[in-house]
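Supplementary notes for students who missed Thursday's class. We covered one full example, reproduced here. Read the sequence, then the structure, then the short commentary at the end.
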Amino acid sequence: MAEKNYRRKVVDYFKKNLSKGYTSDSLKIALFNQGYSKSVIERAFEIANQESAENAPVIKERPVIKYEIIDENNRAIKIKKSFWERVFGM
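Structure (token representation):
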């Protein structure tokens, strides 16, 4: 029971400080210098990442924006690429 609370404190430490913008390496070094074991630090970091991933918003695909030039009769106008654009794919 005490080990779970011990690990939970380290997990919360990671989550709080990662949200503040600290790097994971700097947090790991700080915890190691405070006397925490590497195994506890790594496991707590994995748990913090998993919990953060579960709470992260779902990112939808960005829409593809298509555009076309329309003349006064509402017909699409095709614009020819120049020779150089066709050759170099610009």
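Commentary. The first strand starts at residue 69 and ends at 70. The radius of gyration is 26 Å. If anything here is unclear, bring it to office hours.
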